[in-house]
Write a structure and sequence with these properties.
The complex is a heterodimer. Chain A is 76% helix and 0% strand. By secondary structure, chain A is an all-alpha fold. Chain A has one domain. Chain A starts with a helix and ends in a 13-residue tail after the last helix. The model of chain A has no long low-confidence stretch (mean pLDDT 87). Chain B is an all-alpha fold. Chain B has two domains: 130 residues; 367 residues, no CATH class. In chain B, helix 3 packs parallel to helix 13, helix 8 runs antiparallel to helix 10 and helix 15 packs antiparallel against helix 16. The longest helix of chain B has 32 residues. The interface between A and B is large, with 45 and 51 residues.
Chain lengths: 221, 503
């Protein structure tokens, strides 16, 4: 199995995911997310070629339609109506990037080392699937990090998108034989959930006047 | 007579067709809006009844296209969901019409309300009828999204806050469940290649072969994921806000049905691990007990009626999850029985609070309401029946399910869990009856009770409440009434990890 292209693509998925998380300009962050999703689709295509699994091409198509086209369009719809710069997060850029990088490196190493504990399948134990799965978990953690540290509601929506991308990336290693209809169902549910979340976020900003989730604290106790 | 194997598909299809009618024609005609919703809900009850009759008395589990399966547990759930949905739709007819007349909403918004209600009903049916783990996740997501826009129906600040938190937290939680599903599938696929590894009915057979680490990791992910949907502590943060800020019928829907979906998903997944891993039983019992205790303590501190009921839901969900987690016949039976009972009396309580809000122009603070019982006797009786039922007092239904759960805990020598359950039951009784007494009893001396305009709600609103109150009493006096359904539901869960056919 030629795994250099897959590892390169997977690393690109992680790096662009971090960029989408940390860049404060929401338009650029959305572009980073688009590139991240394109690389995700590329990873699926690389697996399709190297493992000779034609059903994975349907995954590529679903990913392009939903994550490369539709979700960035939804995010763009929000951005052209509202402030394009993310609200100042609780952690500064350098500190956040440092902590995030540290967390991701530790997590990647942990998952990669103890893969037999998490997914003791023949495919997951060998490269490049092993690294790919470790990256998938890392992207999932990246999404959780955004949800935990960001106060801007739309950045939280991007965090949800990354969270779900991590789960999707794991599918290609853990469940490559999933029927196309099932994958389409997952992709559709994610697209609709992001659309609903962005729509509600937009109305939150209109009614409350700010995307600051820290201000969503009237209902307490 | 319809072909039996088409029943599952029609249970999902009827509400979808109704939603299509409502969204396309509902703006111009009440018949196409409210009529379609009520008609679809009524027809769904009929179909659910047929399904239950076939499963219990006829062919056993029904499998039909596309990949749907109705066993004993599914039959119980679809009947419960359809009956309560019918009550809620019936209640909504006058309740939302008054909001329209008062200018609090528009016809266009009512179209969205009833359309989403039907889509929610279809999604609930799908959850209860799918045998595929991944489709279970997708259907759960669908129920969340259908209700999210109803939580913020009034576009108020509080509603938007509640809706945002609801979507964010539940979608995040369900992502964990997806990860757990994928981990389990990858391990199971080695022993049941292809589609069978996705099927809930196959998993019980395969679980003993799956590595312990993967099983426990999957359990943890499922508890986080489906526990968030069910409102289990500590994943409950969205629940009090969403349940209290939604319109009253939707609050009833959320507490009565939506969280049961999370409990149902846990029933389908966690219970298959319990017999093989004692740690799962204790882990679930601890989480459930924490939910019970913290939920009721927070409920006791509330002045807002709806928020009090929401925290009470957090507490009562603990009973359901605990019973299911025990994994024994008595435990699972008790958990399912409590699921049914809680749905009945929690919907009753929320609809009663809705009636109070309807009559008083939106008031819902316990400290501001006093002596309403003389002007609103039916609502008072309904609320107090619900309060006594949730407190576990005989001869109402809550007594039996709680008794079974205590016995199940004793059977496993988890006496600390039994003690916590008893304590929480007493606190629940105190909380709800105290609230009911303050609001309805005593001589009215202040507004709104002294307002000559205050009167009992119309029959279209209290009729459903009376039906639920009567059901609480009838099941309490004659619990054998629903025994066939509960027994088959319990057997459906237990048979997953026994050798042999699923009933």
């Amino acid at each position: 199995m030629h795994y250099s292209p897959i590892l390169t693509l997977t690393l690109g998925v992680l790096i662009t995911g971090v960029a989408a998380a940390e860049i404060r300009n929401l338009a650029v962050s959305t572009w980073m997310y688009l590139v991240h999703s394109l690389l995700l689709a590329g990873t699926f295509a690389a697996f399709a070629v190297t493992t000779n699994s034609p059903q994975l091409y349907w995954w590529v198509l679903a990913t392009v339609l939903t994550k490369v086209i539709f979700i960035p369009l939804v995010l763009r719809w929000y951005i052209i109506r509202h402030p394009t710069t993310e609200l100042r997060p609780t952690l500064g850029f350098r500190l956040s990037l440092t902590i995030l990088t540290g967390v991701l490196i530790v997590f990647f190493k942990l998952i990669h080392t103890y893969m037999d504990f998490i997914a003791p399948t023949d495919m997951a134990m060998l490269e490049p699937a092993r690294s790919n799965l470790a990256v998938a978990f890392s992207v999932f953690v990246l999404g959780l990090y955004i949800l935990a540290t960001r106060r801007d509601a739309i950045k939280n929506a991007i965090g949800i998108c990354l969270l779900e991308n991590g789960a999707h990336l794991s599918l290609v290693v853990l469940a490559p034989t999933l029927p196309e209809t099932v994958l389409l169902g997952i992709a559709t549910s994610i697209v609709v959930s992001v659309w609903v979340l962005v729509y509600i976020t937009s109305r939150v900003v209109e009614i409350i006047g700010t995307p600051d989730t820290f201000k969503l604290s009237e209902l307490r106790g | 007579m319809m072909a039996v194997h088409l029943l599952p598909m029609t249970l999902i299809g009827v509400p979808i067709v109704a939603a299509a009618i409502i969204f396309s024609l509902g703006r111009w005609s009440r018949i196409c809006r409210e009529g379609a919703a009520f008609g679809a809900a009524l027809l769904t009850v009929y179909l659910a009844g047929l399904t239950a009759a076939q499963v219990i008395g006829g062919v056993g589990a029904i499998t039909g296209p596309p990949g749907l399966r109705a066993d004993g547990l599914s039959a119980l759930m679809v009947l419960l969901v359809s009956v309560l949905s019918l009550v809620i739709v019936g209640y909504s007819l006058q309740y939302m019409q008054k909001e329209l007349q008062e200018g609090k909403t528009t016809t266009k918004r009512l179209v969205i309300y009833y359309g989403l209600l039907m889509l929610f009903l279809a999604a609930m049916m799908w959850v209860c009828l799918t045998n595929n783990m991944i489709w279970l996740y997708v259907a759960l997501e669908a129920t969340t999204l259908a209700t999210a826009l109803m939580v913020c129906f009034h576009w108020s600040r509080q509603g938007m806050e509640a809706s945002y938190k609801y979507v964010l937290l539940v979608v995040t939680g369900l992502c964990f469940a997806l990860f757990g599903t994928v981990l389990l599938y990858s391990a199971a696929a080695q022993y049941a290649p292809g589609q069978p590894a996705l099927l809930l009915t196959e998993l019980g057979r395969i679980i003993p072969q799956i590595p312990r680490s993967v099983s426990l990791l999957a359990v943890a992910f499922f508890v986080v994921g489906f526990g968030t949907k069910a409102g289990l502590i500590p994943f409950h943060a969205w629940l009090p806000d969403a349940h209290s800020e939604a319109p009253a019928p939707i609050s009833a829907l959320l507490s009565g049905l939506v969280i049961k979906v999370g409990a149902y998903a846990l029933a389908r997944t966690i219970t298959i691990f319990a017999p093989h891993y004692d740690a799962v039983i204790v882990f679930v019992a601890i989480m459930a007990s924490a939910s019970m205790l913290i939920g009721i303590l927070l409920a006791l501190a509330q002045d807002d009626l709806k928020r009090m009921l929401a925290y009470s839901t957090v507490s009562q969900v603990g009973y359901i999850i605990e019973g299911l987690g025990f994994g024994t016949y008595l435990g699972v039976y008790g958990g399912l029985f409590h699921l049914v009972n809680h749905s009945l009396y929690k919907v009753l309580l929320f609809l009663s609070v809705g009636a109070v809000m309807y009559a008083t122009g939106g008031m819902r603070r316990i400290s501001e309401l006093k002596g309403l019982g003389r002007r609103m006797p039916i609502t008072a009786v309904c609320f107090l029946v619900g309060a006594f039922a949730i407190g576990g007092l005989p001869p109402l239904n809550g007594f039996w399910s709680k008794m079974m759960l205590y016995m199940a805990g004793g059977e496993l020598h988890l006496w600390w869990a039994v003690a916590i359950g008893l304590l929480v039951s007493i606190l629940t009784l105190v909380c709800l009856v105290r609230a009911g007494y303050r609001i309805f009893c005593g001589h009215p001396t202040t507004e709104p009770a002294t307002n000559p305009g205050l009167k009992e709600v119309p029959v279209s609103i209290w009729l459903g409440m009376i039906v639920l109150a009567v059901l609480c009493l009838v099941i309490g006096v004659y619990p054998q009434l629903i025994h066939p359904l509960l027994h088959r539901g319990t057997e459906s869960i237990l048979a997953v990890y026994r050798a042999g056919a699923i009933p």
